[in-house]
Amino acid sequence: MEIRELKKKSCEIRKSALKMIRHAGSGHPGGSMSVVDMLTVLYYRQLKNIDPADPHRIDRDRMVLSKGHANPALYAILADKGYFPVEELSTLRQIGSRLQGHPDRSKTPGVDACGGSLGQGPSVAVGLALGAKAAGYDSQVYVIVGDGELEEGQPWEAAMSAVQFKLDNLTWIIDNNGLQIMGSNDEVMGSGSFEDKFRAFGFEVISIDGNDYEQLIAAFDKKVSGKPKCIVAHTIKGKGVSFMENEVKWHGAALTDELLDQALKELDEQEAAL
Amino acid sequence: MSMTATRVALGDALKALGEVNEKVVVFDADVASATYTQTFAKAFPDRFYQMGIAEANMTGVAAGISEFGFIPFVSTFAVFGTGRAYDQVRNTVAYGHYNVKLAMTHAGITGGPDGGSHQSIEDLALMRVLPGMRILCPCDSAETHQAIKLAAELEGPVYIRCSRMPTPDYEEHPFVLGGSHVVREGKDVVLFTNGTMVSQSIAAAKILAEKGIDCAIVNLYSVKPLDEETVRSYAQKCGKVVSVEEHSIYGGLGDSVSMALSECCIPMKRIGVQDKFGGSGKPEELLAAYGLDGKGIAEQVETWLKK
Ligand SMILES: Cc1ncc(C[n+]2csc(CCOP(=O)(O)OP(=O)(O)O)c2C)c(N)n1
Ligand SMILES: [Mg+2]
């Protein structure tokens, strides 16, 4: 897909995710919006051998959404790709639905790992990357981690092991949107520079505007050997919806019908302007 | 009847305790707006520690601060506070017998739409096996206030289990470690329960009364130590025992009750979350789906008694 088409796609994904959250009456719009662009590039350009008709295909690339609360963005893409019917999106978070409040790999086709308990995805991703190498597949493994999520200890244990095992088939993408639940990262637990930290751990670090398509593509395309890659994606929480951007209160709140209409209108305009 | 979620009461209770005890400090892992410890944070910003999303570290730090006479209340979702930080609770707090209070919320399946990853169905099992751990499970606002006050008075670790779903506020009654509260007298069967299941058991007893089944209900708010004497006497009086809990049937209140009764050979039925995880849904829908609303409890009791 060309960049213009990817951008159009991202508007559709954003609208779909917001509608889903509105319909569910709860969910996490802010952190869903910030990852739409990286997910769009991944699913419509980057990931190899992914097949809705065969979601468990062994040689596929893997995508672990460790910040699992952003799954409305992922579900919107998986439905668009045909992993399950688009109509099913309106069952998000409802009883009996395959679309759980947080990613559940045994319920939802196309979901590569469970999420919800923050900080666990990177370890699963290290295992996937290790396994792919050991079994002789050239699958790439991607893991999207929240900046607040990196306050957990486990990701740093995973980081050490990723470098130790020279996992050059592993890419961490840090959704560095600067916010979490109780305020900004700096207010809650200042993490300093992720670039410096991951470089010190031995990753190949690429710092980008994580809502910029040229930069995302260049970062994904950059070849690295002998070590894992870490893309520090500086993003805007709530990206694409004016009243949500950089607003901590939109971490976990459902929209009213009125605000949803306003958001959809804005996204339609952005799409039309492309 | 007014309704309050015990998580809301938790915030109020911590604030009330903070007003009379300046040694009380509260620890959060980026969820204070959901656990309501922000009520305390707003009143006492200097005694509130924001630890970020790092439950394991939070637990260890609380142990350390308690050495200087502070009474730390560690609070997050039950699933993370008892699960994610289990080894820290076990090997630092419990093994070291630190004066740390674990006040957790979103216990059971009534956490609702967030789904199974956020619903703790195993916290009682995890906490019960720890030597020296005391466990309190309040059913309403009054009991939550009493549980928090009691926890601060006790030396050593205490686990307090709170919920997200609003429940009815009952009249206050005495609340002591190892105590219980008889909610309803009855002669055919006794329901041992606590927390969110108290009101559902009352609803079940009403349904069963219409069918001629007279249920006693005992609220075992102190899961550990358990009021074994009351358990035995009501079991003997009624001759049939049912445990009702918003927890896995493995390792929770049912286990505690059957331990107390294992020498007296009285038939017992366990009602709780079967061998499965929770899922997304509205709290009431989930209770119905898991057979834990008044209707579901009544049906299970009736079917069992008929056997
Ligand atoms: C282990 C664990 N602790 C706490 C939570 C509750 N929680 C859900 S999202 C969130 C904040 C996440 O912040 P960040 O990683 O920055 O995500 P984003 O800003 O991308 O939404 C928290 C604390 C959780 N899901 N898991
Ligand atoms: Mg963030």
Describe the structure.
The complex is a heterodimer of chains A (about 270) and B (about 300). Chain A is of the alpha/beta class and about 270 residues long. Helix content of chain A is about 40%, strand content about 10%. Chain A has a single domain, classed as Rossmann fold (3-Layer(aba) Sandwich), CATH 3.40.50.970. Chain A has a five-stranded parallel sheet with strand order 1-2-3-5-4, sandwiched between helices. In chain A, helix 5 links the parallel strand 2 and strand 3 (about 170-175). The longest helix of chain A is centred in the N-terminal third of the chain and has 22 residues, at about 5-25. The mean pLDDT of chain A is about 95. Chain B has about 300 residues and is an alpha/beta fold. Chain B has two domains: about 5-170, Thiamin diphosphate (ThDP)-binding fold, Pyr/PP domains (Rossmann fold); about 180-305, Rossmann fold (3-Layer(aba) Sandwich), CATH 3.40.50. The model of chain B has no long low-confidence stretch (mean pLDDT about 95). Chains A and B meet through helix 6 of A and helix 2, helix 4, helix 5 and helix 12 of B. Bound molecules: thiamine diphosphate (TPP) and magnesium ion. Magnesium ion binds near residues 147 and 177 of chain A.
Which residues of chain A sit in consecutive blocks of at least 5 with pLDDT less than 50? none
Beta-strand share of residues of chain B: 15-25%
Radius of gyration of chain A: 17 Å
Average pLDDT score of chain A: 97
Q: Identify the overall geometry of chain A.
A: globular
Order of strands across the biggest sheet of chain B?
A: 3-2-4-5-7-6-12
Distance between the termini of chain B: 36 Å
Helix tally of chain B equals: 13
Kindly identify the CATH topology of chain A: Rossmann fold
CATH A-level architecture of chain A = 3-Layer(aba) Sandwich
Largest sheet of chain A: 5 strands, parallel
Helix content of chain B: 40-55%
What kind of assembly state do the chains in view correspond to? heterodimer
Helix fraction of chain A, binned, reads 40-55%
CATH architecture of the largest domain in chain B: 3-Layer(aba) Sandwich
Distance between the termini of chain A: 15 Å
Q: Helix- and strand-based class of chain A?
A: alpha/beta
Q: Categorize the overall geometry of chain B.
A: globular
Could you say what the CATH topology of the largest domain in chain B is called?
Answer: Rossmann fold
Q: What is the mean pLDDT of chain B? A: 97
